[in-house]
Amino acid sequence: ETVLTLKGHHEVISLAWSTDDRYLVSSGKEGSVYEWDIMTGERVNELVQKGTRYKSIAVASDQSYIAGVTQSAYLREISKSQLVREFRSPDENSALTSIAFSRADQIMFCANDRGSLFNIKVPLYEHGGGSFVNNRFYHKSINRLCMTHDDKILISVGDDGTLVFWTIT
Q1: Model's pTM, two decimal places?
Q2: β-pair type (142-147, 66-70)
Q3: Are 62 and 43 in contact (CB under 8 A)?
Q4: Beta strand pairing call for 82-88 and 23-28
Q5: What pLDDT digit, counting tens, does each position of 63-90 carry?
Q6: Which of 135, 134, 107 has its CA nearest to residue 122?
Q7: Residue 154 to residue 169: CA distance in whole angstroms
Q8: 124 vs 118: CA distance, rounded Å
Q9: In angstroms, rounded to a whole number, what is the distance separating the alpha carbons of residues 81 and 156?
Q10: How far does Cα 114 stand from its chain's mean position?
């Protein structure tokens, strides 16, 4: 049974749930990022940037901002329908492909299509925030990242079929 239909994108690229499951954030091929209130089905925030594809998005645990990675190698922070800040990946010639947050918002990772896994200093607004530390392991694109509920393990999946479990210390 269909409970709710959310309309807005022509093609959806990425989805992310808020930690309390009240909000769903989606990114579309047309350059939009929408935040939906699941209780009402209404779009509560939106950002549209024509020509920008947010390949992966994540929501801060307090829902104060959305982080997204783009095909043009940017990590962007979005809050209340505004682009707040952006950081360029050290590897400017490759698209960022995936992002993962810890539930405590103390750890952030993103990956690119050349096999780099970046640990990003958070919070993004403090001195040195947004700095990337490269953990090189893959030789091809990293397609997906996710963290376990206890923030102790990061799982990465490569384009070549490699599945890696990283212990976070």
Answers
A1: 0.89
A2: unpaired
A3: no
A4: unpaired
A5: 899 999 999 999 999 999 999 999 999 8
A6: 107
A7: 11
A8: 14
A9: 30
A10: 17
